[in-house]
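Please review the protein record below. Let me know how this chain folds according to its tokens.
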Amino acid sequence: EQTVTVEDNEAPAITCPSDVAVDTDAGECFATYSPAVASATDNCGIDEVSNDAPSTFLVGETTVTHTATDVNGNTATCEQTVTVEDNEAPDITCPSDVTIDTDAGECFATYNPDAASATDNCGIDEVSNDAPATFSVGETTVTHMATDVNSNEATCQQTVIVEDNEAPAITCPDDVTVEVPVASGEGFVSLSEATADDNCSVASIDNDFNGGADASGTYPVGTTEVIFTAVDVSGNEAECTTIVVVVPDDLDLFEISGNISTIFGIDIENVSVVMSGGDSDSTGTDSEGNYTLEVIEGSSVIVTPEKDDDWLDGVSTLDLTMIQRHVLLIDIFDSPYLHIAADANADGFISTFDLVLLSDLIVQGTTSIQGNTSWNFVDADYDFNDPENPLNENWPLTITLSNINGDLMDVDFVAVKTGDVSGDAGESGTRMVYGEIPVHNKWVKIDDHTYEWVLGPAISQTLTGYQMEFEVDPRIVENVEMNLSTSSLTNKSDYNYSIDSENGLIRVNWWNGKGQDLTPEDEFFRLALSVNDPNVEAEDLAVLNDRGSLWFSEIYDENLDVFRIDLTVTESISSGAWTLFQNEPNPFSDQTLIRFEVPMEGEVVLEIMDGNGRLLRSYDINAVRGINQKVLDASEFPTGVLYYRLLSDEWSGTRKMIRVE
């Protein structure tokens, strides 16, 4: 017998699909692609044709190997190149269009646009813009461009509008007095030209007497008020006034002079004093509160002082305390001028609403109070009909002088600063300070990015109010929140604070005309600070501004004496603390709320005891980390002094409360 073995050693013939180039899937940095099956033939027959293609292809070139296997196990391969291209442009969003003012004294604005936001399926390489170093007045289009890692680009446009709102600086000729013959009735007056400067340029200078910058001309006998107006190329205007007095040579010029000061003896400068009627003139008070006007013999005139600026001058939380004491009939104002000062909105009544409006000036940053001016002025010779209730009468705001035939001196006014009943206005912030009162401050690190700052009295003392300004670095402190829920203070509300996150300023005040007895166990308020730097020291997060941006930080005792604030009593702990707060309200007749703070969740026991220490009630509480609370019903307890105690395996604390009918 003979065995003949025939072997098939002939490999298949395989042909790969053509090389291909495909785009990435929409929104993805890869392509989903399934290569076509390679074609193959074999002398005996094909068993399988396969490839090693991945499920998705990354950007760039990928080699796919196709394999053909015949029925006898012979194989042949070929290669196909799959090129994935990223042709998807980034998605870009421009900053909002902005309108800005020119830099002070310049005809351009310095502005650095925020970066555009951009996303891309593969990734952003660069975001840029073509903003100039300075922007001219008018509209400028800034093109923002985003370039991805594969050099695809996308652009958007932002419009920057620069407005010139800066008025020109105009200088008028000096006031002038000219004498003319009696029979002439008029006279020629030579004046220098008015001049003006502007950050961009001056378009025109005009006057309302004969036009132009030069008002020289023939003026009638009497007083002529010439108003010069400068207009710049952007339409901003500025005015000034020159007084031209033409008098017959047989009439004299007399002086009207006086003083403007407060009842506290403070001379008020920069008060505009205007004379109108049969003659006109205007001037301002000097550093000693004095003024002088010129008037033609025989004239009858009205003298009016005016000042409506710097509403915060002399106004502090001390004034709120004093006004509240007046409202509560504790210390009634003994001067009609204090009544006028306390009526913040000039509605004829002194009320809690006036306190809210004045507090908004101090804390919320409002700059005026509707219905009133920052200063009022009263004829110093005026006698009030009812000094204890002056708001019911119309006191004179002007002084009328008739048929003047000589110099008039002592034409005086009493200046009344709205909101200032302590007498500080006009003294450039000076006041008697009696020392320092320590304030305890405790830093609690909740986690690497969250701190609580708890402030309260460091000693037992009766306080009537405070005002504080704190500053944080907005580059580190991302958010600040005020928490008054655990405060021991009465008469507190959300109107007592403001948070200026952009400038990193926190302002807070409180007042209580009756005064409140406080101990080191009490709390003023607490601030929650979110930070972006886990390594920052707690004590570096915030500082007390002794002299803040608007006023001094200060605190008041039961005698309304002013003290600076000493924050040197500082405690810092790394996690939540055990704290048992004073119940609210206390005393209580219906219900009262007990709050406590624990550093970790777990079981605690709240015990209520009578004045002799006998246990009345016990509550098992599953406490959560942070602030917890328990409401007690007064009907469950006898009247009188009670104690409540919080117990855990790690800590205990006790406080006193009073149950009344």
